[in-house]
């Protein structure tokens, strides 16, 4: 079981799972920063500027970790999956190059101005830079999800005699059959990740008795997002499932734990159970009659596929897919419930005083992140045993690197990622544990840029309250 | 356009992306390497603040190099990465330590924590630079390929030549970083940076000469390209221009110009890079694989070329804008964080 191939998969899974958390956070947070700055420019209310600065500092750390962990991904296609690159590179390489050209440079080029340049460029150009950063993150999500979708539902290509794929129609490659469900599903996931983290930070400070206008504002905004976006995400997940049923039926069979295709009486929904790959049966199952047909085909007796329709070598590993899918859906409905709870509290006028709500929001902070990781595991493990679904097997994609090389690099990755990114995440959590400071800085773009200041990073040298929200030189 | 033209343009574009990365992140990494010489925390803050707003954009050229190579020359990408696996991963680990330290050294809660992140910044910069040199050396000395796959051993990349290249890149980046600091800082920090730039400049020149004399011995093609008629007509101006620029650099240092040393360093890097290009062309993976053999199908190259032709000038414009916004000397105590 432990061979170079499985360790290469483990390494990609580990590095990509670590990586995806940072962009998911950055995509949502960049949009949130854009909204905050827009509201500040429109209303002139200090609270929005304070919140912008508070979250921009956190953004800068999350973004840096996303950049360096993403750099690893762009080279791992070659180091660990060189045969995949050699065979599919001509089709997906250009799409990834477009991501770099249109999105990465845009984000990076305007990030400096957004973080450090308000006094140098003035409000309007600064807001433009923030919009470019937010737009860059969204574009980047589109391109990379287009690549991923192409691997799930490949289109617009041919295969040469030597096994190398070549593009025939780039329009079909980019706008392949699942890109329109995958992009919105991931975008909404990013927004939920940020909504629940922002909400939890607000809830935390209210629980600690810092119910300042800035804290209330962030909590209220986050709860609106939770209440509105969660049902949208559930609907989007349903549409995604229908798309997967059409193009990747075996993935759906693994998600459902169904071994035999359903007969004339429709398929029951297996709520819980343990799929057993050896006996080709789902053990200990609890079922709801007809429910699977109803969910997947929107009809009482609709046909639902089973894993036994294909040879054993072509089946994804169902026990993992079955459970990651359930964790994702379960957390989704919990988030939905929390959104309803917040609406109820808002209606009763207790949004800022209901401690039970605040505790619940605080505990639920990681829920969207976990749901997103489980969703990715469902779709990626569910795609197996292929890298390019139905075309190129994972076993034929790996690099000719032996076990010692992969094992060593995996060990180093694990140590470095937990140490470095662990430290980064701790710093972010510590910054979130401080409440945003009200009106500490007033920004006047006409003032000269060079002003004396103390370094907010050295907490010990800074009076309490001064280190909170300063992103720009203190005046 | 003929397919050969398109492939040549792509080779040029990848080379441009790599050169842009080398000079832009080169001075970023150089600033990190110079942490070894600058111990004061306020000076270190100033040094980091000269590059804080741009480092991320600078590093993006490396991503373009990787993605562009995969898109336009997938065969080369799929051979080079496994062959130079340890050096590429070493570079990535170095860039992780460096990149995260950029933000976190300003957020440390204790002096000890801050020293730790400074160390991460320094070690990450040195490791990334050294591994880039090893990667370059490993590629120059040739990669053993059978049936379009890497067929060498674990440590083929580790030779005296590649170690020399690693050292040369570390010294070169430190030199570039020192010249950058001469331009972007003032007072005592600038005075010290000027001394460092002068010393590193001479070491760099010596290393350039050694690497340049060693490289043609690695491969008969390189030798023919450099020393045989009529190739020598094309190649001889390169060392002559390097020598001329070394003289200009010397006067720039002696007369205390602010920008001249940096411009000379950039030009010398570009010339060394052109020298490498002369050695390589039309190879992409020495000793055997040419850009023609490694190229992606014409349709792939055309598709991304259209975007590159439109987007790269736009990228250069707004990246230039960002540099313009943050122009001028960075003062001690003027902090962005």
* Straight-line distance between termini of chain B: 50 Å
Report helical residue fraction of chain B.
Answer: over 70%
Radius of gyration of chain A from CA coordinates: 24 Å
Number of helices of chain A: 14
Give a brief outline of the structure.
The complex is a heterodimer of chains A (475) and B (337). With 475 residues, chain A is mainly α.
Describe the structure.
The complex is a heterodimer of chains A (475) and B (337). Chain A is mostly helical. In chain A, 66% of the residues lie in helices and 6% in strands. Chain A has helices at 4-43, 46-79, 82-116, 118-121, 123-152, 170-174, 179-207, 213-247, 249-256, 291-297, 318-348, 355-363, 367-381, 403-432, and strands at 157-159, 165-167, 269-276, 281-288, 386-388, 392-393. Chain A has a two-stranded antiparallel ribbon. A two-stranded antiparallel sheet of chain A has the order 3-4. In chain A, strand 5 and strand 6 form a beta hairpin. Chain A is globular and about 65 Å long. Residues 440-475 of chain A have low confidence and may be disordered. Chain B has a domain at 23-187 and 282-325. In chain B, the strands form 2 sheets. In chain B, strands 1-2 form a two-stranded antiparallel ribbon. A two-stranded antiparallel ribbon of chain B has the order 3-4. In chain B, helix 7 (160-184) runs antiparallel to helix 12 (260-280). Chain B starts with a helix and ends in a 12-residue tail after the last helix. The interface between A and B is large, with 80 and 75 residues.
């Amino acid at each position: 079981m432990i061979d170079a191939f499985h360790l290469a998969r483990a390494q990609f899974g580990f590095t990509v799972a670590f990586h995806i958390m940072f962009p998911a956070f950055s995509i949502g947070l960049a949009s949130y920063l854009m909204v905050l700055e827009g509201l500040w420019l429109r209303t002139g209310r200090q609270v929005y500027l304070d919140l912008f600065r508070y979250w921009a500092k956190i953004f800068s750390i999350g973004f840096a970790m996303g950049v360096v962990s993403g750099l690893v991904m762009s080279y791992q296609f070659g180091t660990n999956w060189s045969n995949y690159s050699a065979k599919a590179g001509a089709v997906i390489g250009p799409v990834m190059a477009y991501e770099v050209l249109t999105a990465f440079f845009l984000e990076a080029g305007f990030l400096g101005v957004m973080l450090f340049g308000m006094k140098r460029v003035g409000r309007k150009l600064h807001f433009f830079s923030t919009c470019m950063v937010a737009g860059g993150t969204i574009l980047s999500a589109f391109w990379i999800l287009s690549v991923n979708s192409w691997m799930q539902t490949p289109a617009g290509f041919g295969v040469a005699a030597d096994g190398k794929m070549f593009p025939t129609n780039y329009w079909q490659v980019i706008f392949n059959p699942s890109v329109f469900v995958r992009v919105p599903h991931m975008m909404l996931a990013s927004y939920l990740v940020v909504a629940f983290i922002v909400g939890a930070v607000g809830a935390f400070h209210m629980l600690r008795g810092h119910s300042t206008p800035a804290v209330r504002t962030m909590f209220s905004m986050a709860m609106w997002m939770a209440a509105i976006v969660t049902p949208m995400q559930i609907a989007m997940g349903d549409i995604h499932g229908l798309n997967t049923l059409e193009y990747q039926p075996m993935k759906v069979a693994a998600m459902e734990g169904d071994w035999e295709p359903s007969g004339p009486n429709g398929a029951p929904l297996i709520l819980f159970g343990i799929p057993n790959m050896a006996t080709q049966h789902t053990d200990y199952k609890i079922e709801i009659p007809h429910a699977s047909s109803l969910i997947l085909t929107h009809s009482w007796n609709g046909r639902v596929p089973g894993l036994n329709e294909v040879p054993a070598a072509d089946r994804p590993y169902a026990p993992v897919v079955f459970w990651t899918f359930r964790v994702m859906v379960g957390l989704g409905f919990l988030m939905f419930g929390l959104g309803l709870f917040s609406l109820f509290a808002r209606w009763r006028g207790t949004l800022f005083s209901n401690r039970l709500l605040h505790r619940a929001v605080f505990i639920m902070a990681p829920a969207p992140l976990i749901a997103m990781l489980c969703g990715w595991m469902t779709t990626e493990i569910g795609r197996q045993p292929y890298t390019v679904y139905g075309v190129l097997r994972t076993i034929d994609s790996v690099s000719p690197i032996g076990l010692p090389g992969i094992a060593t690099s995996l060990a180093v990755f694990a140590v470095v990622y937990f140490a470095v990114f662990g430290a980064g995440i701790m710093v972010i959590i510590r910054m979130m544990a401080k409440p945003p400071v009200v009106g500490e800085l007033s920004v006047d773009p006409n003032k000269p840029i060079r002003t004396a200041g103390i370094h907010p990073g050295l907490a010990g040298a800074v009076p309490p309250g001064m280190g909170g929200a300063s992103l720009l030189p203190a005046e | 356009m003929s397919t050969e033209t398109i492939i040549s343009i792509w080779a040029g574009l990848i080379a441009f992306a790599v050169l842009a990365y080398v000079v832009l992140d080169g001075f970023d990494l150089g600033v990190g390497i110079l942490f070894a010489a600058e111990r004061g925390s306020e000076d270190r803050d100033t040094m980091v603040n000269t590059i804080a707003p741009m480092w991320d954009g600078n590093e993006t050229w490396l991503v373009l190099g990787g993605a562009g190579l995969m898109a336009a020359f997938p065969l080369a990408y799929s051979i080079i990465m496994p062959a130079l696996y340890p050096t590429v991963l070493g570079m990535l680990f170095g860039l992780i330590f460096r990149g995260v330290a950029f933000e976190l050294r300003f957020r440390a809660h204790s002096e000890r924590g801050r020293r730790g992140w400074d160390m991460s910044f320094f070690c990450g910069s040195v490791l990334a630079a050294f591994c880039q040199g090893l990667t370059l050396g490993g590629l120059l000395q040739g990669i053993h390929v059978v049936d379009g796959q890497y067929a060498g051993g674990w440590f083929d990349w580790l030779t005296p030549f590649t170690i020399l290249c690693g050292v040369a890149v570390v010294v070169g980046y430190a030199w570039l970083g020192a010249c950058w600091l001469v331009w972007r800082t003032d007072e005592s920090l600038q005075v010290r940076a000027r001394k460092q730039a002068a010393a590193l400049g001479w070491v760099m020149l010596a290393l350039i000469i050694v690497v340049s004399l060693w490289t043609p011995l690695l491969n008969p093609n390189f030798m023919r390209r450099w020393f045989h008629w009529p190739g020598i007509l094309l190649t001889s101006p390169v060392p002559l221009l390097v020598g001329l620029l070394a003289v200009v650099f010397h006067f720039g240092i002696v007369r205390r110009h602010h920008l001249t040393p940096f411009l000379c360093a950039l030009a010398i890097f570009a010339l060394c890079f052109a020298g490498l290009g002369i050695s390589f062309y039309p190879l992409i993976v020495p000793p055997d694989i040419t850009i023609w053999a490694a190229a992606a199908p014409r349709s792939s190259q055309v598709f991304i070329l259209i975007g590159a032709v439109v987007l790269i000038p736009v990228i250069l414009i707004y990246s230039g804008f960002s540099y313009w916004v943050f122009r001028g000397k960075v003062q001690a105590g003027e902090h962005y964080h």
